[in-house]
Amino acid sequence: MTETPAALREAHHADVSGGWLRPAVFGAMDGLVTNIALIAGVGGGGVSPRSIVLTGTAGLVAGAISMGLGEYTSVRSANEQVAAEVAKERRELERHPEAEARELADAWVARGLPRDLATQVAEAVRRNPEEALRVHVQEELGVDPDDQPSPWAAAISSFLFFSVGALVPLLTYLFGSTSLALALAVGGVGLFVAGAVVARFTKRPWWSSGLRQLLLGAAAAGATYLVGSLIGIQGGGL
């Protein structure tokens, strides 16, 4: 069977603009690692299962709100910075169109395009002010001014996926278990599964991505468990 070339297929590339996928992945991973480490730390200090649930729930709520607000502020600030640079480039194109066309041609020549062809294309682009603005911004800033991520999408994705990730290590306690080891094991499974799901977008081997997340989470949990145990011992239990 003849395969259709990728260039002829609509949307043959994944969305890498960073709208929702990056904050969703980061939120889920951060929720898992944060609450696994938090539960390991207070559990290592010898607190009661009820206190672990309270601590984990507080960590879930506080972390989800923090992640959502942080993503919104971060993405909005980045978009505002891009908008300011676009406005600056627009002014330069209005005041010095010939110099800007030469600058664009020079950039293409540096990439290997013949001088005559680069100049012709730059002049053709200059005749369309909006297209000229878009091309100059892409060449000079490396961004598409018409395809900026939504701060609301980033905030909501981060909030929701952090909450889901942070809930995973609490599930066993919510279902009546009092075993810290079981909660951490469930959290470890969650980390592996999350890493394996991410591999679907990055094309890495699923087992490699899952194992990487599991090891990172285990390192965080081990460190906080050790700290919690030392504080619990020195303080005579909490």
| Low confidence ranges | none
How much is the average pLDDT? Answer: 89
Number of helical segments? 9
How large is the share of residues in beta strands?
A: under 5%
Distance between the termini: 68 Å
How do the SSEs run, as a string of H and E? HHHHHHHHH
Q: Major β-sheet, in short?
A: none
Protein structure class: mainly alpha
Query: Radius of gyration over alpha carbons?
Result: 25 Å
Helix content: over 70%
Number of strands: 0
Q: Estimate the global geometry from the Cα principal axes.
A: elongated
Could you describe the 3D structure shown?
InterPro entries: Ccc1_fam. Keywords: Membrane, Transmembrane, Transmembrane helix. This is VIT1/CCC1 transporter family protein. It is a multi-pass membrane protein. This protein is mainly α and 238 residues long. Helices cover 77% and strands 0% of the residues. The chain has 9 helices and no strands. The protein starts with 20 loop residues before the first helix and ends with a helix. The mean pLDDT is 89.
